[in-house]
TrEMBL record:
Claim: Signal is one of the keywords in the record: yes
Record-given protein name: PLC-like phosphodiesterase
Keywords: Signal
Signal peptide annotation: 1-22
InterPro entries cross-referenced by the UniProt entry: PI-PLC_domain, PLC-like_Pdiesterase_TIM-brl
Gene3D superfamilies named in the record: Phosphatidylinositol (PI) phosphodiesterase
Length: 359
């Protein structure tokens, strides 16, 4: 009797110790099943023009591409944030690098440094997450210009430096990036010259190719390489694939705006020109899933659902905020108080889901 319980107890020991060590990396990017996946063997959900929000803070600017800010995007599972960076001179005539939509007169969301600080703050309290930042270098900032902003924000502490400037066959696993503390992947479109001082700034088109992004019709999406030029579907040089998946609509005077009226289909799993369908289509073209998808208004759909599906993530989604898929009514106050309540609800939903899946 005593002997038997001793045996049982010792049988439990390895189980207990392995479950404790597993606890320190219970989930990577919200899922235990993603920890052992190479960075380039999964799909990362990207928020197109992440800082350009269409909410009260911008008086619901029609130039806005997202209904929720970058912090909430990360809370809700987005792991790639793209932004346009423009040169904007300060009152004293010094160069400042700002996040502006097409032009700083149209929509100026502040300095690159303050946005990077916001992302760093999120990463400080989310230690099992790999985040990708994609800078659209609209005014040809040099690596030193951009690197200085990364350094002053402090986010460079997390930056991953590639082993070489040629395309790797396999990128590190999420687990490895997390354990080494190099959880920030930084790509710049484009960087004329890399810098030994800021070696973590990676030229996007050295490592990544994209399909066309200027699309206005749900029947006009393509999987074929558009940038960099000279690639074909059968010859992409081992680059990762970023799938642009959003629609523009052209307004008066030729001004392009995100098509928000069709986005519930654009970001859905099924339907004409839906994210789910397009992921399947491009997966069949390349024999593997796109590595990144870039969407507008990511909460609609929700886009994360198609990404979970293609990643094979079906349960145990740890610590992700669930947002409403509704498009905000621009006349209703969707202030911070309401969102805080939403995040409490999200935690409760996550717990209920975890219990239901027996996790
Ligand atoms: C990608 O991940 C899947 C799922 O874990 C695995 O089966 C496959 O072998 C991986 N492929 C590569 C090339 O690592
Ligand atoms: C800088 O941004 C402000 C708006 O924040 C704008 O009025 C000004 O024209 C910009 N300057 C340049 C040089 O882009
Ligand atoms: C879709 O593509 C076709 C063929 O290239 C083109 O003629 C048409 O103008 C495009 N539609 C839109 C809305 O851009
Ligand atoms: C958005 O796209 C849909 C589908 O092509 C189209 O019917 C609708 O008119 C577009 N909306 C705008 C505002 O252009
Ligand atoms: C998208 O929104 C339109 C207009 O509200 C609605 O008719 C349609 O059923 C919605 N489609 C999906 C897939 O949610
Ligand atoms: C895209 O995928 C859908 C369903 O997943 C399929 O019906 C359609 O034929 C595919 N189209 C192309 C061009 O591969
Ligand atoms: C992001 O939005 C939330 C909800 O509206 C708000 O509480 C938070 O202060 C915002 N964060 C930043 C950095 O703007």
């Amino acid at each position: 009797m005593f002997f038997r319980s001793l045996l049982q107890a010792s049988a439990l020991l390895p189980f207990l110790s392995s479950s404790t060590s597993a606890q320190s990396t219970t989930a990577c990017n919200n899922s235990p099943s993603l920890c052992s996946r190479a960075y380039n063997n999964m799909t990362h959900l990207g928020a197109h023009d992440s800082p350009f929000v269409r909410d009260k803070s911008t008086s619901f600017s029609t130039s806005g591409n997202q209904y929720y800010n970058s912090t909430i995007q990360l809370d809700a599972g987005v792991r790639l944030l793209s932004a346009q960076v423009h040169k904007n001179s300060s009152a004293t005539g010094e160069d400042e690098w700002h996040l502006c939509h097409s032009s700083c007169d149209l929509l100026d969301m502040g300095s690159l440094t303050s946005w990077l600080k916001e992302i760093k703050t999120w990463m400080d309290s989310h230690k099992n997450d790999v985040v990708t930042v994609l800078i659209v270098n609209s005014d040809d900032a040099t690596a030193s210009d951009l690197g200085a902003q990364f350094a002053s924000s402090g986010i460079d502490d997390y930056a991953y430096t590639p082993a070489s400037t040629s395309v790797p066959k396999t990128w590190p696993t999420l687990e490895s990036l997390i354990s080494k503390g190099t959880r920030l992947m930084t790509f710049v479109a484009s960087l004329k010259e890399t810098s030994t001082q800021y070696p973590y700034l990676m030229d996007e088109f050295t490592y990544i190719f994209e399909n066309d992004f200027e699309n206005e019709s749900p029947t006009n999406y393509t999987c074929t390489p558009n940038r960099p030029t000279g690639l074909t579907t059968s010859s992409t040089g081992g680059r990762m694939f970023l799938m642009n998946h959003f629609l523009y609509s052209t307004q008066l005077f030729g001004i392009q705006q995100p098509n928000s009226t069709y986005v519930n289909v654009t970001n859905a799993e099924t339907g004409l020109g839906s994210l789910g369908t397009r992921l399947d289509n491009c997966t069949s073209v390349y024999g593997e899933a796109p590595n990144f998808v870039l969407v507008d208004f990511f909460n609609v759909g929700p886009a994360i659902q198609s990404v979970d599906k293609i990643n094979g993530v079906t349960s145990s989604i740890a610590g992700r905020m669930t947002l409403t898929t509704a498009q905000p009514n621009e006349n209703v106050d969707t202030g911070a108080a309401g969102r805080r309540d939403a995040s409490v609800v999200a935690v409760i939903v996550a717990v209920v889901v975890a219990v239901a899946f027996g996790m």
